[in-house]
Structures are given as structure tokens and as C-alpha cells.
Design a protein that fits this description.
With 345 residues, the chain is an alpha/beta fold. The chain is 31% helix and 23% strand. It has an 8-stranded mixed beta sheet, sandwiched between helices. β7, α8 and β8 form a beta-alpha-beta unit. The structure holds iron/sulfur cluster. Iron/sulfur cluster binds at residues 270-271, 307, 309-310, 313, 315-317, 320, 325, 338-340.
Length: 345
């Protein structure tokens, strides 16, 4: 079973697309002032406080793909795990469909976990190597539903086909598939409970470039066909440009700029966004002059005071070392946190 499966039949996609664009203003997930800190043992055994996510606010609209971009270590994955409550938030709110899940009771949490699923970076480590694909897909249905065995069988067969794989795959083990096929299986598992919201954490970065395009197209098709909402985390801006509706740029646990994909890629404002984009060759069909940032990403155990980007910013002003910039609206859909756009800093 080493051949990549075909994409699902896309015959009805255009019709579904027209139906699904109407609910894009409804907020599905709202994160308010979220802070995540944890203790970690540093060199010489010293315990340090890691400031992974810092007072972050963000909303995800129903039916959209919101991408979060930023360097490794900026807090993207901690944010994703905290939304799923795999990490404990220090403070703030995570509101899903109007309910703060941080204070949710057991049955509310169970319901939340059915509606929110995750796709991980490495499909091989996220699938149990000792379980046949059928059993991997059956497990969440047994735990979370009252379906009969016949109904479970139908759901499993229907779901694997959604990802472009055939029913024969169900009797095989993960090691019998290619990387792209394994990620399709991981996607099938994320769909099995019919969720509304999917967190995809670097879902294609472990795959070959040619396979990446197939998986990205599959996710886009599934989003349209099943009215899914995605929070898509990636360091790869060319992938983000292809898949997302909006993009949030994250730096040291904060969102420093957010806008539509068009605004971020064609009219970036924050010096960090500009530097990130300049590092992607020919992303807009032009050769960019690469902006080389001075220094490394500061440690999240020792955050700079003021604007957190000031230690690397080529436009740093005295105020940037003292005060934190607030959101400045560039348009209805685009904001930036930078004193360069603030008339009265
Ligand atoms: Fe650079 Fe100052 Fe803007 Fe921060 S606020 S990005 S340091 S110009």
C-alpha cells in the first residue's frame, strides 16, 4: 500500500462553497487575555519560569482557516495544546461556542472534546503502530457515542473515503502506509466524531513537498464540504499563503499582526512580519530583498521589556524599550502592534 490515494470526488464542492460562505462572521472560538506560564529546569538545575503565551487574544470565525505563523519557540504549539487543555492556562479565557471551557464541567468538557480535534505534525507517532486502522478509527466512536457496531462500521468506511483512501486500508497497520497516507489516516481519525473545529499543528511539515500539496488540497476540500473551521499552525509561509483565509503573526507568545491572507502577504506592516516574508523566496512572484534580523529569538524565560521585538528590530525607537505597543487598526480586518503606526505613542 505505497501509492498515494486520490483526492475525494470534488463534483459538489462548488455548490457547497456557495452555501458555506454565509456563516463566516460567526465566532466559533474566542481566546481572551490568555497567559500560559510553566516552570522548567534550566542549566545548573535552576528552575525558571517560561512565559510561553502572553496575554493573547484571538477569535476564530466559523468556516475559516486562521493560520498562526512564527518561528520555532514563539509559543504556537503551546497555544494549540492549551486550547485543547493539554496544557494548563495560567490565566485568561478560552470560549468555544459561548462557553468558557476553562471552567467547564466534566460533561461540557466531553462535549467540547468531541467537537474539537487535532492533527499532529508526525502522523506516525500519533497513530498506534500495534492497532489496525479500523481499530484506531473505532476507538473514539466506542468511547464517545452509543452507536451500534453496524453503525460504527458504516461511519468508519464513510470517513476513510472522505480522505481519499479505500476501505482496504482499514485492515492494515500504520507501517504499511506512506507518510502522506498516514497523514490522511490521522485526518480521518480527526473527522471520525464529526467535529466542527480542527487544530492542525504543522500538519504537512514532516511530508515531502509534492505530498504536502495533496494534503493541503485535501484539507481545503474537507473544510468546504463539511463546513469545518481550522486553526492552522505552521512556520511555512508558502503553505499558509495557499491554505488560509486570515493570518496571525506570533512573536514571543503574542500576536503582533493579524489580517486577511491578502493583507499580510501583500501589505505587511510589522517589521517582524516583513522580515519573515522576506525570507521566503519569490513568495509574491518577486525576488524580495532579504531582511536579516540581528540576534536570535530571546528566551521565553527572559522576555524583553517594552515591545518584545525591540532587541531585533531595525526601526527600534527609545519608546519601544519602555512601553508595549497596543493594537493599531490598519483596516477593519487588519491590525498591527507597533509604534511606527501609532500617532500618539
Ligand atoms: Fe520595532 Fe518599535 Fe515597532 Fe517594536 S514597536 S516593532 S521595536 S518599531
Amino acid at each position: 500500500m505505497k501509492e498515494e490515494g486520490k483526492l475525494p470526488n470534488q463534483g459538489n464542492v462548488i455548490k457547497i462553497l456557495m452555501i458555506n460562505t454565509n456563516n463566516m462572521d460567526e465566532t466559533l472560538l474566542e481566546i481572551k487575555n490568555l497567559t500560559v506560564q510553566y516552570k522548567s529546569q534550566g542549566m545548573l538545575g535552576l528552575v525558571q519560569l517560561v512565559h510561553a503565551v502572553n496575554n493573547l487574544s484571538l477569535s476564530v470565525k466559523k468556516g475559516e482557516i486562521l493560520a498562526i505563523a512564527g518561528e520555532s519557540g514563539c509559543g504556537k504549539s503551546t497555544l494549540a495544546k492549551t486550547i485543547l487543555l493539554l496544557e494548563n492556562p495560567t490565566s485568561g479565557e478560552i470560549i468555544f461556542k459561548g462557553n468558557n471551557i476553562i471552567s467547564a464541567n466534566k460533561s461540557e468538557l466531553k462535549n467540547f472534546r468531541k467537537q474539537v480535534q487535532m492533527i499532529f505534525q508526525n502522523p506516525y507517532s500519533s497513530l498506534n503502530p500495534k492497532m489496525k486502522i479500523y481499530d484506531t478509527l473505532k476507538e473514539p466512536l466506542k468511547i464517545n457515542t452509543n452507536l451500534s457496531n453496524k453503525e460504527i462500521d458504516e461511519v468508519i468506511k464513510k470517513t476513510i473515503k472522505k480522505t481519499g483512501l479505500s476501505e482496504e486500508c482499514l485492515n492494515l497497520y500504520p507501517h504499511e502506509f506512506s507518510g502522506g497516507q498516514r497523514q490522511r489516516i490521522a485526518i480521518a481519525r480527526s473527522l471520525i466524531l464529526n467535529p466542527e473545529f480542527i487544530l492542525a499543528d504543522e500538519p504537512v511539515s514532516a511530508l515531502d513537498v509534492s505530498i504536502q500539496a495533496q494534503i493541503i488540497n485535501l484539507l481545503k476540500t474537507l473544510k468546504q464540504q463539511y463546513n469545518l473551521t481550522f486553526l492552522f499552525i505552521s512556520h511555512d509561509l508558502s503553505v499558509i499563503k495557499h491554505i488560509s483565509d486570515r493570518v496571525a503573526i506570533m512573536y514571543l507568545g503574542e500576536i503582533v499582526e493579524l489580517g486577511s491572507t491578502n493583507e499580510i502577504f501583500h501589505s505587511p506592516k510589522h517589521p517582524y512580519t516583513k522580515a519573515l516574508l522576506s525570507s521566503v523566496p519569490k513568495i509574491n512572484g518577486n525576488n524580495h530583498k532579504k531582511i536579516i534580523l540581528e540576534g536570535d529569538l530571546p528566551s521565553p524565560t527572559d522576555l524583553p521589556i517594552g515591545c518584545k521585538f525591540h532587541t531585533r528590530c531595525p526601526y527600534c525607537m527609545p519608546i519601544c524599550r519602555k512601553k508595549t505597543p497596543n493594537e493599531k487598526n490598519i483596516s477593519n480586518t487588519h491590525y498591527v502592534k507597533c509604534f511606527l503606526y501609532d500617532e500618539n505613542p
